[in-house]
Design goal:
There is one protein chain. With about 575 residues, this protein is mostly beta strands. The strands form nine sheets. Strands 28, 29, 30, 31, 32, 33, 34, 35 and 36 form a nine-stranded mixed beta sheet that branches. Strands 1, 9, 12, 13, 17 and 18 form a six-stranded mixed beta sheet that branches. Strands 11-10-14-16-15 form a five-stranded antiparallel beta sheet, with no helix packed on it.
Length: about 575
């Protein structure tokens, strides 16, 4: 994670704690300077509040370097507010620093003081005559709230806010000219994402921006590439551009529809609601409730939304005061092109599409993983996934040793039609013990990106008791050896030899996994799970040679030679 310095560590906004007292530490790096015999001082319009007789006294507030690291500092106790200041390498104005234009109050147009918005205990650190701490850059943000109405006090959060990014306690903004707001942070070179909010937390209106300043791909975060000090252009809230006259907004009725016919196979709940930016994203069951008046399992609600606006929302199943949110990204409806009442097409819960066939009811699913290739298998092997309650690490299930080779197994009653999972070699709460499969092209066919930099396995049920193929830990390779005696699967291959398409015909209709290996057993291609009696497979990209076609089902295995010309 990149090291960053925030100007404001707390979130409280200008004027919200007019009398609150804060510990503010001013720090200045003097390693590039010859320090005056009279010491290093800081002067500004905070000094009287800090106990000095007067503001802007160059000798009243000395800094010290107790650990001799060249960084001088002093901590003062002052109220929340906006302050201007400068460092002085002396006890008189002859030693005052020359503040770079980028971080001056007026950006080189007159007032050359530094400035800071104090809204909590914080550090104000920089280099003498410099714009930022060593190795960092001064980045100033400017926002116009002209089109958002009176009384809005904005803030900002992003990938650089807090230890893990996107802290709700974000960066407060200073009002410097009517509807215009600003603040700055210190950032290392790199790429960042951020967005503005019209309140001091996530419950208000958060930006959902369209344009060339965002990440894209459905992500409405602004993107920022830092390669030195910078002052960002003034932009309008919810826009990549400066403010212009706001478009006329007229109320229209928008009807949302969600199909719960498939969801009811596995889920029980008290009601279904919709939550979004339009109602503050409540997660306690107080969102807008949908109804199914004709008992067809399609729940609807009609909302009064405005034209020329963008709405993000999700459906949630409510049990008591607990909400189960959809696992997909935010649904988005743009009213910019709408002028009349609109009904949005029916979608399946937790899907962007209409519901398909009714999924199978709950049944026993057996997980098996082969640990024989691991140099240090743990005492306990676990499976984690979206099928447990609670999901993933919190609902981890231990596997038992099967008694055969390095295979561990467990059987779980599962209702979800498809689910994601992975195995852990030891403590499931330690990410270092999770298997890592799918990171390269040779492994990508049996795993899906999880959106967090890792990969998950995925399985789709067809009904009845099923056994998931026995994967080797952290691999897409399948161990076709049986844990219990299995029947031989009869099948034929045509044509053989082949130079392209392969037609495989099974003697019986069953769900099977099909892989292609070389004669040493090394995986060449995984054709995945197939249903039915006859399959057409494509081998055009496979080099000429002699291979083995391997077929595995819950009850049997089969193998045959294949010649690719």
């Amino acid at each position: 994670m990149r090291k960053i310095y925030l100007v404001a560590a707390a979130f409280l906004l200008t004027g919200t704690l007019a009398n609150a007292q804060n510990n503010v530490t001013f720090k200045v790096d003097m390693n590039a300077e010859t320090v005056s015999a009279n010491g290093v001082h800081v002067a500004g319009d905070f000094q009287n509040e800090a106990g000095a007789p007067n503001d802007w006294d160059p000798a009243a507030t000395p800094l010290s370097d107790g650990d001799a690291d060249g960084i001088y500092e002093v901590t003062v106790v002052i109220p929340s507010g906006y302050y201007q200041f400068k460092f002085i390498n002396d006890n008189g104005w002859g030693g005052v620093e020359s503040v770079p234009a980028v971080c001056q109050v007026e950006e080189g147009q007159g007032n050359d003081n530094r400035w800071v918005l104090v809204n909590g205990d914080m550090e104000v650190a920089t280099t003498f005559n410099g714009s930022a701490p060593s190795g960092m850059n001064f980045v100033k943000f400017k926002l116009d709230m002209e089109n958002e109405g009176a009384g809005k006090v904005p803030s900002m959060s992003g990938s650089f806010v807090g230890s893990g990014g996107w802290d709700e306690a974000g960066v407060a903004m200073h009002n410097y000219d009517g509807t215009k707001w600003t603040n700055y942070v210190y950032l290392a070179d790199g790429d960042y994402e951020y967005k503005y909010r019209d309140t001091n937390n996530w419950s208000g209106k958060n930006e959902s921006v369209d344009g060339d300043c965002i990440v894209g791909g459905g992500n409405s975060n602004r993107t920022l590439k830092v390669e030195g000090d910078m002052i960002l252009d003034l932009v309008c809230f919810n826009s990549c551009d400066p403010c212009s006259a706001p478009p006329e907004k007229n109320p229209i009725k928008v009807t949302l529809q969600v199909d719960l016919s498939n969801t009811k196979v596995c889920e029980s709940f008290d009601k279904i609601t919709v939550a979004g930016g339009f109602n503050g994203w409540p997660g306690d069951g107080t969102g807008a409730e949908l109804k199914d008046d004709d008992n067809d399992d399609i729940y609807t609600i009609t909302l009064d939304w405005e034209t020329n606006n963008k709405y993000e929302y999700k459906f949630q199943l409510i049990t008591g005061t607990t909400a189960k949110w959809e696992g997909i990204g935010n649904r988005v409806f743009n009213t910019n092109t709408k002028s009349t009442d609109t009904t949005i097409a029916v979608v399946c819960f937790d899907s962007e599409e209409a519901c398909g066939p009714t999924p199978p009811a709950a049944d026993s699913i057996t997980f098996r993983v082969d640990m024989s290739k691991e140099s240090s298998p743990a005492d306990t092997i676990w499976v984690i996934g979206s099928f447990t309650d609670p999901q993933w690490q919190a609902g981890a299930i231990a596997l038992d040793y099967s008694g055969v080779g390095g295979i561990f197994e467990t059987t779980v009653e599962i209702c979800a039609e498809s689910f994601k999972f992975k195995y852990t070699n030891g403590d499931p709460n330690n990410q270092a013990f999770e298997e890592f499969v799918g990171a390269d092209s040779a492994q990508a066919h049996c795993a899906e990106p999880n959106g967090l930099g890792g990969y998950n396995r995925e399985y789709t049920r067809t009904g009845g008791e099923e056994v998931i193929p026995t994967y080797y830990f952290s691999s897409c390779d399948i161990n076709t050896a049986s844990v219990e005696p299995k029947e031989e699967i009869g099948f034929s291959i045509f044509p053989n030899p082949t130079n392209g398409n392969i037609q495989i015909t099974l003697n019986n209709d069953e769900r099977v996994g099909i892989t292609l290996t070389d004669l040493s057993g090394k995986l060449v291609k995984d054709f995945g799970m197939q249903n039915g009696i006859q399959f057409n497979l494509n081998a055009n990209e496979i080099e000429s040679g002699l291979y083995l076609i391997n077929i595995q089902s819950a009850t049997g295995t089969g193998v045959a030679k294949l010649i690719v010309e």
